[in-house]
Amino acid sequence: MARGAARGAVGALAASVLALAFQAIVRHIVDIETMGLFTVATTVVVLAQLPALFGLEAGAVRYVSLGAAAGDERRARGSAQTALIAGLVMSTAGAVILFILAPEICARFDKPEATHLLRLASLALPLLCTSRVCAACVLGFGLTGRSSTITAAQNLARLLVTVPLVLLLADVTALGLGFAIAGLAGTVFALWLLRSVSPRILEPARDRWDLRSMIGFSWPQTLSQSLYLATLWTDTLVLAHYGSARQVGIYGLVVALLAPVSQLTVAVSQAFTPRIAGTHERGDRAGLARMLQRVSYWNLAVALPILGSMIVLREPLLALFGRGYEAGATALVILAVGQLILNAAGPLTAVINLSGHPRVTLFDNALVFGANLALCIILVPRYGMAGAATSTLVALCSVTLLQVGQVARLFRIHPFRDDQLRCLAAGAVAAVATAAVALLPWPSSLLEVVVGGAVFLAVYGAGIVVLGVRQETRELFERGRARMFRRGPT
Questions:
Q1: CB contact at 8 A, 105 and 32
Q2: Cα radius of gyration rounded to whole Å, the chain
Q3: Residue 366 CB burial class (10 angstroms; 0-12, 13-18, ≥19)
Q4: What would the pLDDT profile of 69-126 be if each residue is shown by its tens digit?
C-alpha cells in the first residue's frame, strides 16, 4: 500500500504542478470573463462524463480486481474489455447529444457566448471517458501507482498545446481545441499504459464479456456518482446561472487550486481501493479497519500543510494569477476547510461501494445533492461566490458525517486514529507561525507565498516530529530512505 500510495502521490504531484502552470500562464493571457465561459463549458463536459460512463469505472475496478485476485487473467481481461467497449459507445452517444444541445444548455446559464466552447469541449467526452475507464482497469489490476500518471499526461498535453494555440489564435477557440487535444493525448497514453499492464488486452475474451452483471453493479454507481459530482459542481453551475462570467472565472480558479489536493487524496486512496473487495470477501473486518485508518491518516497528514498554507496565504496566492482574483479569497478558505474534512474521513464511499452496498451511497448522494442545490439557490443570489462555497461546505460535511455513521453501523469500524489530532495540532501551530510571517512587508506576492509556504511546511514537520508518530510511520520512512539510497549513485 505504501509503495502504491507513494507512486500515486508522485503522479498526482506532477499532474498538479502541470495544471497550476497551465492556470498561471493562461490566466495571464486570457481575461477573467473568457475564463469564466471556459469554466462553464468544461464543467458541463465534466458532469456529462458520469451519465456517459454509467458507473463503469466502479464496475471495472471491482470485476477486474476480482479476476486479478483469483489469478484468472482471462476474466480480468474480459471485464476490462466489457467496460471499455460499453464506455466508448455510451460516451460517443453522449458527445453527440451534448454537441446538438450546446446552444440550449448555454442559454439556460444565460451564457450563449459559451456555445462554441462547449461544442469544442464536447469532442473530448469519449476520450476523457475512455481514459478514465483505462485508469480504473489499471487500478483493478492492482497497479495503483500508475493510474495517476494519466492525468499528468493530459495536463502536460494541455499545457504544451493550449498555450501556443492561445498565443497564436488569440481566440476562445484555442481553449476548446486545447481541451479536446489534451483529452486525445491522455487517451492514447492511457491505452498504452493499460496494454503495458495487460499485454493481451486487445485479444478478445468474449466468453468473459458479462455486460449484464457489470451494468447491474454499475448502474447504481451512475446515479450515485452523478449526484456526488453534481454536489461538487452545483456551486459552479448555480453561480454561472445567477452570477457574471467574471465571478465564474474567479471561482473556477479557486476550484482549480483545490483540485491538486483532491487528486493527491485520490492517488493515496487508490492504493487501498483494489483491496477493499477482497478484504471484505474474506470477512477480515480488522484488516479493513486498519487500512481505512492508515489511508485517512495519510490523506490528512499530506493535505494539511497544502490546505493550511492556502488558507493563511490566500490573497497573495490568488494574486499570482492576475489582478482581480483576490476576490475569491473567502471562497478559497471555505472550500479548503471542506476539503480538509473530506481528507480526515478517508475514502468512505469506496468502502461502502466496493463492499457491496452501492445503494447506500446512492441514498447519501441524493440527500446531499438536494440539500446542496437548495442551499445554492438560497445563498448564491445573495452572497455570490461565498454563498456557493458555503453550500458546498455544508454538503461535504453532511455526507461525511452520514457515511462515518454508516460505516460504523455496517462494518463496526471507523476511519479515525489518535495521531490525526497530532497532525491538526501541528497544523495549527504552523498556521500561527505563517500568519506572523505574512504580516511582514513583502515586495511581491510570489516571494510571500514561497517563504510563507516554506515556513508552514517546516513548522508543521517539526511539530509532527515533536508530537510523535507511530512506529509503522517510522518504518515506512526508513524503508523509503533505504530504497532511495539503494537506487542512488554508487
A1: no
A2: 22
A3: middle
A4: 778 888 888 988 998 999 899 999 999 999 999 999 999 888 899 999 999 999 999 9
